[in-house]
Amino acid sequence: MQNSRELHPAKSVDGSVRPGGDKSISHRYAMMAALASGTTKLENFSTAADCSSTLGCMESLGCAVRRQQSSVEIDGCEAKLKAPAAPLDCGNSGSTMRMLSGILAGQPFTSVMTGDDSLRRRPMGRIMEPLAQMGAHIESSDGRAPLTIRGTRLRAVDYVLPVASAQVKSCVLLAGLFADGVTSVTEPIATRDHTELALKSFGVELKRDGLRTSIEAGQQLRAIEAYVPGDISSGTFFFCAAAIFPDSNLVVDNVLLNPTRAVILDVMTAMGLGVSFLRVEEQHGELIGSVQVRGGKLRGVTIKGAQAAALIDELPAIAAIAPYTTEGVEICDAKELRVKESDRIAAVAHNLKAMGVQFEERADGLRIPGNQQPHGAELESFDDHRIAMAFSVAALRANGDSIMHGSDAVAVSYPEFYEALHRVVKL
To answer: Can you tell me the distance from the alpha carbon of 326 to that of 224, in angstroms, rounded to the nearest whole number?
Structure first.
C-alpha cells in the first residue's frame, strides 16, 4: 500500500456521518448464511476489504453470493459446503481465518487457508489448540498461515479460554455445530457476543451460564433478512475527532450500540466528550442507534484490565489524541496490540515521535502525558487501517500539515473514511 495523503489542520468538526456496516457482524452473518437453509438478505453489509474476503471464501466453498454495493444475498448450503478448488484467500482478515477455521474443521474435505503477508505473520495457535482437542487435523507454518485443515467429525469439548478472545470463542462455538454432543466455551472475562446473538437469529439454541456458553451439535440454521448496524469501531475515529475540538457538534447515525462494543462511549464521556442518544432500537438482538457528540475540555484517562480488552480495536485512536488531553492517557494490559495487523504499540510510538510528542512505550501499552502540541509530520500507516485513521484524526489539531503514507490501508475496514472525514471537518 503506497498511497500518501495530505492532512491539514482543522478548526472544528460538525455535521453527521453514517459509518459502513459493522465488520464483526458482517463476517458472522456471511458465514452463518452459508450454513443456513434458504437465502439470507443483508442490507448495509460492510464494504471493508476484510468482509469481501469472507464473501469470497464462502463463494469458493460453493455458496452463491450476489452483491450490489452494500446489499448482499447469500444462498445457504445447509451446512454442506463444497471442497474449494484452490486455497481460500483471507486477504488481511484474521477474523475470516480464525472463525472460518471452526467451520472447516467439521467439513468432510481438506482446505487450505492463506492470506496476505500481514495475515501470514499473525499467530493462529489460539484456534489450533482447541480445534485439535476437538479432533481436527491442522497443519501450519510454525503456528501461522497457511493453514491446511483436514476436516473430520469433531468431538465436543468443554474449553476454557486461556486469554479473552471473541474470535477464538466464535471458532469453537462454530466448530461445535459439527461436533458429537454439547460443546462449551468458558471465558476469563466477557467478550463481544456477536456470534451468540447471530446464531440465535439464525435459529440456533445456546445456553449461557455466567461466562460459559454451550452449543449442541446438529442444529439447522435458517436464513434471515437483516440490516447490519454501522461499525462503532469506525465511528470511534469520529468520536475522537469531535473530542479534540471544544466547539464540535457531530451526529453518528445508525451505529452499533452493543454493550460489549459501546465501552468506547463510556470512556469518551469520562474524557469530557458530551454524548447523547437520539434513537435506540433492537434488531436481531443487536442495539442500534444514533449518537450526538459535542466537544468540551478533553481530560485524560487510564485504561487497563477488562476495559483494555474490550477496547482493543479503539486503543490506537485514544492514544493518538492523548497529547491533546489535560492529564494524559495511560494504556496498560494491551499486549495483544503487538500482534494485530501491525505492532500497534510500536506504530503509535513511531507516529507520536514523528509529531514531537513525549511518551513512554511499554511492553503492554503506553503512557502519553497531556498538554502537548503535536506538530505536522510525515506519518506511517504501517499498512494498518486503524493506525492510518487514528493519526489522520490526530493530524487535525497538529501545528502544520501532515502526510499519511500508506493511507489506502483504510480500505481494509472503512474505504469511505477520508470522504466521510472531509464532509465533517471545517478547515
So the answer is: 48
